[in-house]
Design goal:
single chain; about 230 residues; alpha/beta; Rossmann fold; seven-stranded mixed β-sheet; 7 helices; globular
Length: about 230
């Protein structure tokens, strides 16, 4: 048995339910979890950066309404989330965080100051559809992958056919920030084992729950909008 197979079992917490949609503050949910108990966290912060950088004059109207209506996170709030995520991750556990191109260009380190997380990879998701933009039109998002120290791949990352440019079209459009199910399933299979708990404190359309359950993992997550 490898160290990877000895992932600690999630400790049941009163008031939290596995494999259910929960309406609550993700930061408060994270604070309820014990230290070093979660092998994988997905995090999709609601950044203001795209809207602020593009400075759309019609923000909140038409096609931009769903995006602008979502509760937005400032940099301080994101840093607070990362602090709690780092705490609950197991040693060598992973955080997979969605970022926009402005965060990539301006520097991920802004969020990692003082953290025991290290950037180990990045995947660009080609959505196969054209999005907003006054210059180039957006058709991709970026998933940055962090690992909690100690940093290692052998015995921890077990799937080796995941492309760093991933093409997947979203058919389910029930949420404005729907994410690619097949990519998430691949990543879940890469760094967790059957029965592990995968966490998403900002679950949106709960695509991570579907992905985790289809891979026989448990899901724990929530969203302010339920």
């Amino acid at each position: 048995m490898t160290d990877f197979d000895k992932t600690p079992t999630w400790i049941e917490v009163k008031g939290l339910k596995l494999n259910k949609r929960q309406k609550m503050d993700g930061f408060e949910m994270l604070k309820m979890l014990a230290d070093k108990t979660i092998p994988l966290v997905f995090f999709d912060p609601q950044y203001r950066s795209v809207l602020d950088k593009q400075k759309y004059g019609n923000e909140g109207k038409g096609r931009g309404k769903e995006r602008s209506d979502l509760p937005q996170m400032d940099n301080r709030m994101i840093k607070d989330f990362l602090k709690e995520i780092e705490r609950v991750l197991t040693p060598s556990g992973h955080l997979m965080m969605w970022v926009d191109k402005y965060i990539v260009c301006n520097g991920i380190k802004l969020f990692l100051e003082g953290r025991g997380l290290q950037l180990v990879d990045m995947i660009t998701w080609n959505k196969q559809r054209m999005g907003m933009g006054y210059r180039s039109r957006r058709c991709s998002e970026h998933l940055v992958i962090f690992q909690k120290k100690p940093i290692r791949a052998k015995g921890v990352w077990r799937v080796h056919d995941i492309l760093d440019v991933w093409s997947e079209k979203i058919e389910d459009k029930n949420h404005t920030h729907a994410k690619p199910i097949e990519l998430q399933k691949k990543l879940i299979n890469a760094v967790t084992i059957v029965g592990d708990v995968v966490v998403d404190p900002s679950a949106g359309g709960f695509s991570v729950m579907r992905s985790a359950n289809e891979m026989d993992r448990n899901f724990l997550g929530c969203d302010l909008l339920g």
